[in-house]
Amino acid sequence: MASLLVHITAGPNDPTRAALGFLVAKTAAEEGHEVNMFLAGDAVQLIRDSVLDNLVGLGTGKIREHYDVLVQKKVTLYLSGMSCASRGITDQDLENKPAEKAMPNILVQLTMDSDKVLTY
What we know:
Blueprint: E1 3-8, H1 15-30, E2 34-39, H2 49-54, E3 56-57, E4 61-62, H3 63-72, E5 76-80, H4 81-87, H5 91-94, E6 99-102, H6 104-113, E7 116-119
């Protein structure tokens, strides 16, 4: 199977695009591919429970449903540390989630290690 990096920069203000990134990552994980996700910019806000529970994309589904499958499939979500700091995402927001803050070097490494990269 292939490895895929899904890089999402769309946040709650673009729910369809944000949910599409999660949907594609979920689909790849369900098909047995190795999947990593990197959320940057406004996308780091997608990790908040209030957003996960309420964001629905037009034709791309509920982000919570996609996220729950990603958790089940043990997909790690990397969040830009700088984007988190500027948008008030704290370590408490990441508690009990397969998510960790990361710097740009992690994005570069994930990109180099992946067979394919998709950006939303």
